[in-house]
Amino acid sequence: MSITRESVAGLIDHTLLKPEATPDQVAALCREAAELNVFSVCVSPSQLPLPAGGLPSTIAVATVCGFPSGSHAASVKAAEAAQAVRDGATEVDMVINLGLAKSGDWDALTAEIAAVKKAVGSVLLKVIIESAALTDDEIVAACQASEAAGADYVKTSTGFHPAGGATAAAVRLMAATVGGRLGVKASGGIRTAAAATEMIEAGATRLGLSGSRAILEALSSGTEVTGPGGSY
Hints:
Elements: H1 5-9, E1 12-16, H2 23-36, E2 40-43, E3 60-65, H3 74-86, E4 91-95, H4 98-102, H5 106-120, E5 124-128, H6 136-148, E6 153-155, H7 168-178, E7 183-187, H8 193-202, E8 206-209, H9 212-221
Parallel strand pairs: 1-2, 1-8, 2-3, 3-4, 4-5, 5-6, 6-7, 7-8
Helix pairs in contact: 3-5, 5-6, 6-7, 7-8
GO molecular function, one term: deoxyribose-phosphate aldolase activity
Family: Belongs to the DeoC/FbaB aldolase family. DeoC type 1 subfamily.
Main location: cytoplasm
């Protein structure tokens, strides 16, 4: 794809997942999302439902479940995801149980993802695999489990794991594994236009960003600008 300000905006989940985020900050995020014409906003499930009229209908509403550790029972993740859909989420980003991945229990991991997918129905499901905490073989297996369970996207990171966030190498491996059958979301530590461009060139079809404005302004001007930082 041609990487322009407009094309990148159409890939962005404009994100605010800091635990101290306030309703006023979420409202500001929605106003900024409308101004920037991004794909979606992504907020914590406790911030749903969004205030009526707070977001244009053209912008999707994403949330998270099992966030950020992933160490919740599958039934709890499924219930949290189902509640989020009732509260207006049109996309759900779930965190896998990393212990299952690290121990190689791929059947249990597939079952966990399938339980959340069943709970959300036709709502788009992204599976956060925390790629920085996995080996290449584990990344491949986690992507395969996500596909087998009926997920719509695989996603690199929460942005909160100490192992780190997205890398172009992980995105490239994930994209090769799912082969266009699932989307690939890069998130975690993407704070510059150069980093966003690198992720897209590696195969990302969605970007999770908290510094969306700075990145889009850099793309518009052709001048590299570092975003405001933060964990996401």
